[in-house]
């Protein structure tokens, strides 16, 4: 098995390097914040009462990923957030989080809000799925 490459001196292909590895810095002394990942789906009466759409409570039927990150003693202006299709990169002066997401997301249509009273950053990302018999909208 041989892989053709543009440059003969390269030791791996770009497909072999995982997305987001350019953000990973093992020598960064900042601590990793606590976070929670949950999934959200939009259901209507046809789903709840009649089961017409075939949706179930599994993550395969969810449309959004909601990530809640605890950032104590942090101001909104100190947060740097970068979202790629499979990676969330969060940086503050005291905390750093590089999170490989469980599903590919649409990085252009996400939204984030900082709940200052609870000191939590809530990031909602739309999951990018191929259309199938469950995810058809």
UniProtKB/TrEMBL annotation:
What is one Gene Ontology biological process annotated in the Swiss-Prot or TrEMBL record? flagellated sperm motility
Q: Which GO terms describe its molecular function?
A: dynein intermediate chain binding; protein-folding chaperone binding
Sorted alphabetically, the Gene Ontology cellular component annotations on this record are:
cytoplasm
InterPro entries referenced in this protein's UniProt entry, alphabetically: DNAAF6 (IPR026697), PIH1D1/2/3_CS-like (IPR041442)
Instruction: Please note every region of biased composition (Acidic residues).
Output: 16-26
Where does the PIH1D1/2/3 CS-like domain start and stop, copy by copy? 32-127
- Specify where the region named Disordered lies, as residue ranges: 1-27
Q: Which family does it belong to?
A: Belongs to the PIH1 family.
State the protein's name: PIHD3 protein
**Species of origin:** Promerops cafer
């Amino acid at each position: 098995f041989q892989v053709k490459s543009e440059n003969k001196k390269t030791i791996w292909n770009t497909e072999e390097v995982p997305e987001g590895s350019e953000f990973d810095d093992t020598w960064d002394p900042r601590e990793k914040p606590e976070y929670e990942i949950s999934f959200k789906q939009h259901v209507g009466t046809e789903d709840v009462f009649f089961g017409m759409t075939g949706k179930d409570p599994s993550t395969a039927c969810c449309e959004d990923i909601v990530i809640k990150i605890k950032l104590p003693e942090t101001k909104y202006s100190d947060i740097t957030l970068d979202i790629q299709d499979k990676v969330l990169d969060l940086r503050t002066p005291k905390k750093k989080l590089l999170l490989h997401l469980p599903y590919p997301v649409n990085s252009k249509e996400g939204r984030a809000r900082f709940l200052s009273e609870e000191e939590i950053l809530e990031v909602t990302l739309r999951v990018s799925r191929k259309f199938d018999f469950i995810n058809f909208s």
